[in-house]
Amino acid sequence: MNILGKKIAAAAICVLAAAALPAFAFAKNARFDGAAYSISLDYNESVAPGDPVFLRMRFENVKAKKKNFSPAATAEIKIDGKAVGSSAFYPISEKKGSLEYMTGLPISSWAKPADAEIIVKYTAGDEGEKSFTLPLQIAQKDFVSGVITLNQTMNNISKNTSPEKVAQSKKLNDIINSITPENSYNLKRFILPVKSTRRTTAFAERIIYKYPSGKESATTHAGIDFGIPTGTEIVAPAAGKVVLAENRIATGWTIILEHLPGLYTMYYHMSQLKVKEGQMVSQGDLLGLSGATGFATGPHLHWEVRLNSVIVNPDYFIENDWSFNEK
């Protein structure tokens, strides 16, 4: 770990210690003390394939006036010296003498165990760019595999190349590829969108599709499927904005929520929608009812989380203090 730049480097005291709360042992804190300001940064230093990495950075004890101090920062992950993703920090809070920023980076579900690193680059005030490096451990994780035999309806949907389906795919991709820095709606731990715990397909399950013709294709399941009867209530796992609510050829009645810049949750195959595009929702609000519309073998909810357009493990947001908001 290092900091570049004379003003900080000359007086820096760098500490990397485990967070005080044992429930979140994955969290680490890096602190850098300088003459004009201090930096305190929390992040999860250990991840499994398919997990996200979040960093929450605070500029504290700021002595410069606001107009002379407007930080900007980015984080980049490198594995074996190769950059695999970067993301800009966005503001989440501003108090007298303190500014808070956050960013998230996805780790591919296909990532191999590795000692990686996160490089944070930032500018603050009239100073030039500085950087520091944080260690990141990517652990081993094995994913289950399964086979799905397609009926004729599902086969027809998979082969559909109509302009309508192409336009629907473009609209969805445009949404999940969007990162709007000011759209910070939630920093709380998620809840499950359904009460049922019955899961029929796991996150990142390696699936073989068998077609009526006898052909096969391989894919990675992008979310979690909950096997629930048609008409089961589906609720928002966290506060956010409804950015898509419509019937799609592939995913049936569909909802997408935006929670943070680049962080979206998706709900497929519903029978009814209870919200509209542009609507703000709170954690636990009713989104709609489950069904079997679109590419579905039976009634279920497909729940998916995207970070910077990459699929990430939904359970991570339930099991962890991922935003370091509970410290």
Radius of gyration: 22 Å
Oligomer: single chain
The helix/strand series, from N terminus to C terminus, equals HEEEEEEEEEEEEHHEEEEEEEEEEEEH
Choose one word for the global shape. globular
Low-confidence stretches: 1-25
DSSP helix count? 4
What's the helical proportion of residues? under 10%
E-strand count: 24
* Spatial gap, N to C terminus: 23 Å
Residue share in β-strands:
over 45%
What structural class do helix, strand and pairing data support? mainly beta
Q: Give a short account of the largest sheet.
A: 10 strands, antiparallel
Mean pLDDT: 89
Structure description:
9% of the residues lie in helices and 46% in strands. It has helices at 6-9, 152-159, 163-176, 316-319; strands spanning 14-18, 27-33, 38-44, 46-47, 52-60, 72-79, 82-88, 90-95, 98-106, 114-123, 130-138, 145-149, 199-201, 206-210, 216-220, 223-226, 233-235, 240-248, 252-260, 263-273, 280-281, 286-290, 301-307, 310-312. With 327 residues, it is mainly beta. The chain is built from four helices and 24 strands. Strands 13, 16, 17, 18, 19, 20, 21, 22, 23 and 24 form a ten-stranded antiparallel β-sheet that branches. Strands 1-2-3-5-9-8 form a six-stranded antiparallel β-sheet, with no helix packed on it. It has a five-stranded mixed β-sheet with strand order 4-11-10-6-7, with no helix packed on it. The longest helix has 14 residues, at 163-176.
